[in-house]
Design brief:
Four copies of one chain form a homotetramer. With 184 residues, chain A is an alpha/beta fold. Chain A has one domain: Flavodoxin domain (Rossmann fold, 3-Layer(aba) Sandwich). Chain A is 39% helix and 18% strand. Chain A is built from five helices and seven strands; from the N terminus they run ββαββαβαβαβα. In chain A, helix 1 packs across helix 5. At the A-D interface, helix 4 of A face helix 4 of D.
């Protein structure tokens, strides 16, 4: 069977976003995991304006569509804003529909505070179900994002590597099971 | 491959529950669908008291465990109480864990009002993900439950039959995909 | 006591949005209610791009801040997209914080389907609590939005007028109670 | 004005519940706060069986009704089970309705893991809104409940005292504002 493809999407476009470092770390760990191909996606490259809705596909939403058509799953790394998801992430997700169907999705939450984006994870899962995705139970929470990495850009708490390997393993199990069923 | 087994659970134990008629109808339609074996489960037969927690398995929770071990998925038919699930349903679900893992779940919502239990469906899905189930996107909403059936007990709106066939088809697709992957 | 001021915000900027007609109707009914001053706000006039985050206040977000500083509450009229709120609405709400505190908010949901945006209402309430607003229990759901108004732009189901009067009465009760307490 | 009355409800009846210690600590701190009268309530004294629904008021639900009629607000201290509330807590809350109306509610979450019941807090707030309560923004999260108290039963992290004082202050602000408006 062909190697699975699961891109990693950074969900915030805010100035000074701490979630970018986290998403880069998650991307690196996905390459360490190695059992699926991956690609780094930044929401800022896919959402131009609030007007970019499903009814008006732009060049950028076409590219997003092509990537998700090929994908066997999706990882979203996103901060939590006011107990919800960033608006720009929702605008991007709402541009497509069938491209997501019957594929698993895993979420990594990022926050300045203690809870690592746990509330964003819940409400985003609700959207993902409506997109006919399978939100997996494993999630990795990155609280206190400002203090996660040292001056060299290395993560201070090495246990995140182990947690991500478990997260990727569950995601890959579903990606594989659903890819086989979609092809059958 | 062996025939799949997906029980149908009625989630309310309240006096005068309208959801029982709906659950019986869903059960009958599952037999019409015919591609999986099924069984009718009533929450009142599995939850004795508020004390029946995971730490104190009763005879009834052992039976529930045996049923879910054999099951390839679960249908929950439940009313919405105050935008949430009935307490007795939550007590029952919280008694098990591994028995649910990597199996799909579909929810039918019931309400006296216009919205068919839509809010209960959302918050129940959040629990089901934590139980490592796959909550499917299809859901069937039964609003105005008092007026759904005529004096003969027949459903007034025949379109529910079609909606349930679509619901069962999606559930069976996931049940089959995940059963194959669990065995692989 | 001075008359209360509660603006009405249309939360979608999508081409062909049906929610605009609903928001105009809600605005007209607020004037019929008459016990608070109101103003029609359109999300498209306050969110330019996905970059307009809290860290980069634009002229438009300054205006939004001035309006909410004066306001004693907020009505949001919004469609539901994939069981969540529109991204542009979330971008707009995330621009402010203190301006919202200790003021009530009421939500009217709009949908093409049968459920009138009920899921969006729930997850938006979760955000509003974090903004230190008081999400009121009354909500008005507008399902099947394409068919709500006749050729003359009149609502087909007059009962919406009554429902909105009840909604405004509850909102005004909280707006008054909290305005007095803020000033005390 | 008469002193406000805000009881504190322990929401779990599970054997070995860690949340009892937390609820006792919250109760003690409420007495330190001192600006409202309080009372310790244990869900096990109010829910007999899953059959104790609103339609069948027992002696215990009558007592619960009398307490909430007198109350100016409610504090709920509860663990999170599978990203939701305990079934017994939901059974208890679903027994009443008007007794809750136009009163604030604050939630303290308890968990064995790192997130302090944050998901339970969100879905419980959704119910509280439907009960016409005002769920306040402040919440206190008690993660790693097994390790919160030393052998003498004293809390290890004194900062919880400060957090609870802030929590009670916000709750009292709403309790006072709404009590005045209810009487007006």
């Amino acid at each position: 069977m062909e190697k699975l493809f699961i891109p990693i999407l950074l969900g915030s476009d805010r100035e000074g976003r701490q979630s970018e470092k986290v998403a880069r770390f998650v991307f690196d760990q996905a390459k360490v995991y190695g059992k699926f191909d991956t690609q780094f996606l930044d929401v800022k490259d896919f959402v131009q304006t609030a007007k970019t809705g499903a009814a008006m596909p732009s060049e950028k939403s076409k590219l997003w569509s092509e990537i998700m058509k090929r994908a066997d799953g999706l990882v979203i790394v996103s901060p939590e804003y006011n107990h919800g998801y960033p608006g720009e992430l929702k605008l991007m997700l709402d541009q497509l529909y069938q491209e997501y169907n019957r594929k698993p999705a895993g979420i990594c939450g990022v926050s300045a505070g203690d809870l690592g984006g746990a509330r964003m994870v819940e409400v985003l899962r609700i959207c993902l179900i409506e997109l006919q995705m399978v939100p997996i139970r494993e999630a990795v929470y990155f609280p206190k994002a400002h203090d996660l990495f040292n001056e060299k850009g290395e993560i201070r708490d090495a246990s995140y590597k182990e947690r991500l390997q478990k997260f990727f393993a569950e995601l890959a199990w579903y990606a594989d099971a659903l890819a086989k069923a979609r092809k059958a």
